[in-house]
Design a protein that fits this description.
Helix content: 55-70%
Distance between the termini: 46 Å
Shape: globular
Number of helices: 11
Order of helices and strands: HHHHHHHHHEEHH
Strand order of the largest sheet: 1-2
Strand content: under 5%
Largest sheet: 2 strands, antiparallel
Radius of gyration: 25 Å
Length: 273
């Protein structure tokens, strides 16, 4: 077992030693910070490596890899907009009720009566901006060849994140519960009938059966699962609400953590050739 002295902070300036040394030597401080004062390269590196958030980023990066003309800052903007959507979405959840009786009324109240109703517009336009920014990020990665080995795994993670971004936008489209939203989701979910294997009109669905009974039909395919029935109704609103507020954001957050971690493991942000 390693000596306890190895866990103690390294050298700190004398002035700070005289004032704060009892704090640095306390068990509480040492249980939180597993590195010394940031007075040398080793401790600066340990600050990054031992931090639950910062360890996903490399200790050193190439200057060319963070040039605005190379990255367009699209990845950072995508993450920033995700945070904006998360914060504004949580605030909207205090006022919105996902029922057919109150959904549209609550949306109108958010716009006209609720203090700081601007958050609803921030959430709406932030969603549009996030879709555009994520597409531009994928476009930049493709143009710069940042999807090539050893980054091909992270490219696939990014493609999944793009799909989740589009699904976030799609599931949120129904929540205002107006005619535009209802018919747009009706058209969108009708396309799910042609999903390979999972849609009852899609290729391969006829082969998924037990004996002579098909397991994929109009009452059990992916469209039925999304709608919670044959048509858009209150069950659909509740399912889209749960998908939009819990399931998809949680999956996106996990994949973003993997995405950032793999950037570090693959050598940091890719630089110009």
């Amino acid at each position: 077992m390693a000596d306890d002295k190895e866990l103690r902070p390294a050298h700190v300036p004398k002035r700070q030693q005289s004032i704060f040394q009892p704090i640095y030597d306390s068990q509480i401080w040492q249980s939180i910070f597993r590195h010394g004062w940031m007075d040398n390269d080793r401790n600066r590196a340990l600050v990054i490596i031992t931090n639950v958030f910062m360890h996903m980023h490399p200790v050193r990066i190439r200057k060319s890899g963070v040039m605005l003309s190379f990255t367009w800052c699209m990845g950072g903007l995508s993450f920033f907009l995700f945070l904006v959507e998360t914060v504004t979405g949580v605030l909207l959840m205090f006022y919105y009720r996902p029922t057919a009786e109150y959904a549209y009324v609550d949306i109108v109240a958010l716009r006209e009566h609720v203090p700081l109703g601007l958050f609803r517009e921030m959430h709406r336009w932030g969603a549009h901006a996030m879709v555009i920014i994520v597409w531009l990020h994928m476009f930049r990665v493709f143009l710069t060849g940042s999807y090539k080995p050893p980054r091909e795994f992270n490219w696939n993670v990014g493609v999944i994140l793009l799909v989740l971004t589009l699904l976030l936008s799609f599931t949120g489209y129904l929540l205002p519960w107006d005619q535009l939203a209802i018919w747009a989701v009706t058209v969108g979910t009708n396309m799910a009938r042609a999903t390979p294997l999972l849609g009852h009109e899609g290729p391969g669905a006829m082969f998924i059966k037990v004996g002579d009974i098909s397991l994929v039909h109009a009452g059990s395919d992916v469209r039925f699962g999304l709608l919670g029935g044959r048509f858009v109704g209150e069950a659909t609103l509740l399912r889209f609400y749960v998908l939009h507020c819990v399931a998809i954001p949680l999956g996106a957050a996990i994949l973003m953590a993997v995405h950032f971690w793999r950037i570090r493991k693959d050598g940091g942000i890719s630089g110009p050739m």
